[in-house]
Design goal:
By secondary structure, the protein is mainly beta. 4% of the residues lie in helices and 44% in strands. The chain is built from two helices and 28 strands. Strands 1, 5, 8, 10, 13 and 15 form a six-stranded antiparallel sheet that branches. A hairpin with a 2-residue loop joins strand 26 and strand 27. The N and C termini lie far apart (82 Å).
Length: 370
C-alpha cells in the first residue's frame, strides 16, 4: 500500500510530463512558492537542499521568505499568498516543464528589489536568454510583474531565473513570486488591418489577483516579444493592462505608456511606396488616478501626429487618425508618451496614457479624404 501511495504521489508530481501534455496557461506547479522546504532543510531563511523547494531546483544562496518578515528596518511584503523566494548573488531557481516544440511562450513573474539598487535578473530557456533590468520601480508597493518570451526547440523546457548580481550582502537580492506561463499564438496581418495584434489581445499571462499589470521590458525584439508583433524600443518598459483591473478602450487588453519618451512601442509593416494609408488608434486613461494633460506621439515613417488627452484619471478615451503616403516598402509605426506622469493618489507610481485598437489600412481613393 505504501508503494502504491508513493507511486501515486510521483505520478501526480510529474503528471503533465508523464502524460505528454503541455503545461496549461497559468501558474507553474508551486509557482507561488506556497509549498516550502521542510524545517530540516532550512537554516533560518536559507534553503539548504537543492530540491528543498517543491517542484523547483535551486542553486546558490536562496532564501525562503515569509510575508511580513523584517530585514533591518525593511518589512518584506509578499503580494500574493504568504511566501516568496529571494535570490542571492549568482543564485537561481529552475523548473522543467512540458511544452510543445516550436511554440512561443511567455513567462510572467513578480519581482521586488530589496536593498540593492542596480538589480537585474537573467531569465533563460535554452537557447534563449534575456536580462531584465529592475532599476526602475513602477509600483509603489515595490513589486512589479515582468514578462519575457521564448520559442522552444524541444518538448521540454528548463525555465531558469538567475540573479547575476555581486553584492557585498548576499541577502540583498531580489524577491521572486508567482511564476506563470502562457502559450502565445502570434497573430497575422489581414486585409482589414496591416498591423499584427492591433488590439494587444494576444500577450503574456496577467495574474487575476494583482492590480498593477505586467511590464513588457525594454529592447524586446519582434520575434520573441511577449506582446506578439510589437517591439519595445526604449529604455523603459511599457505596461500591459487588462479590463478586469483597468479601463481599456477596446476588448480586454491594452498598453499603458508609463515612462514618457523612454517608453516606446513599435511595429514594422509592409507598405507600397507612393500609396496612401490611414493609421487610426485610441488614446485614453486606465482609470487608475493618472490625471492631467497627456500627449501621445504617433509616427508612421517620417510622418507624425501629437494627440493631446486631458485625463481625469477615471477612464475614457478618444480616437485619432494619421494619414500618410508611404515612402518605402517597410514603414515603422511607433508610439510614445510626451510626458512622464505620476498617479495622483500615489506619487511614486509611474503611469501614462493608454494605447489601444491600432489600425492601419491602405486608402484606395485618397482624393475622397481631402
Amino acid at each position: 500500500m505504501l508503494r502504491i501511495a508513493l507511486l501515486s504521489v510521483l505520478f501526480c508530481a510529474t503528471s503533465h510530463i508523464a502524460l505528454g501534455l503541455s503545461i496549461p496557461d497559468g501558474l507553474l506547479p508551486n509557482g507561488d512558492f506556497e509549498y516550502g522546504p521542510k524545517q530540516s532543510e532550512l537554516n533560518g531563511t536559507v534553503v539548504l537542499g537543492r530540491f528543498a523547494v517543491p517542484k523547483w531546483e535551486i542553486s546558490g544562496f536562496v532564501e525562503y521568505i515569509k510575508s511580513g518578515q523584517k530585514q533591518g528596518d525593511m518589512l518584506l511584503v509578499v503580494p500574493a499568498g504568504a511566501y516568496a523566494v529571494r535570490l542571492g548573488n549568482e543564485a537561481s531557481i529552475k523548473q522543467r516543464v512540458k511544452v510543445t516544440k516550436g511554440m512561443y511562450y511567455s513567462l510572467t513573474f513578480s519581482a521586488a528589489r530589496t536593498c540593492a539598487q542596480e538589480e537585474k535578473l537573467n531569465v533563460s530557456v535554452a537557447p534563449d536568454s534575456g536580462v531584465l533590468p529592475m532599476q526602475t520601480l513602477y509600483s509603489s508597493n515595490g513589486w512589479d510583474s515582468y514578462a519575457w518570451a521564448f520559442q522552444v526547440d524541444y518538448d521540454v523546457a528548463d525555465i531558469v531565473i538567475h540573479n547575476p548580481g555581486v553584492e557585498e550582502d548576499p541577502a540583498c537580492g531580489p524577491l521572486i513570486d508567482s511564476v506563470a506561463i502562457r502559450a502565445l499564438y502570434p497573430p497575422r496581418p489581414t486585409n482589414k488591418n496591416l498591423l499584427k495584434n492591433y488590439g494587444f489581445e494576444e500577450g503574456p499571462y496577467v495574474f487575476p489577483n494583482t492590480s498593477w499589470g505586467v511590464l513588457i521590458p525594454p529592447n524586446i525584439e519582434d520575434d520573441h516579444s511577449p506582446l506578439p508583433g510589437w517591439m519595445v524600443e526604449s529604455l523603459k518598459a511599457v505596461k500591459y493592462i487588462d479590463s478586469d483591473h483597468f479601463s481599456v478602450p477596446e476588448g480586454k487588453r491594452a498598453v499603458e505608456l508609463v515612462a514618457g519618451k523612454e517608453s516606446a512601442i513599435s511595429q514594422i509593416v509592409r507598405t507600397i511606396p507612393g500609396k496612401t494609408y490611414t493609421l487610426t488608434f485610441a488614446v485614453g486613461d486606465a482609470s487608475n488616478s493618472c490625471e492631467g494633460s497627456m500627449i501621445v506621439e504617433a509616427f508612421a515613417g517620417r510622418n507624425t501626429i501629437k494627440v493631446p488627452y486631458e485625463s481625469k484619471g477615471k477612464g475614457g478615451f478618444k480616437r485619432a487618425v494619421l494619414k500618410f503616403v508611404a515612402a518605402s516598402t517597410r514603414t515603422r509605426i511607433m508610439f510614445f508618451s510626451t510626458f512622464y506622469t505620476m498617479r495622483s493618489d500615489d506619487f511614486s507610481s509611474l503611469c501614462g496614457p493608454v494605447l489601444d485598437d491600432v489600425k492601419l489600412l491602405s486608402v484606395r481613393h485618397p482624393r475622397r479624404m481631402y
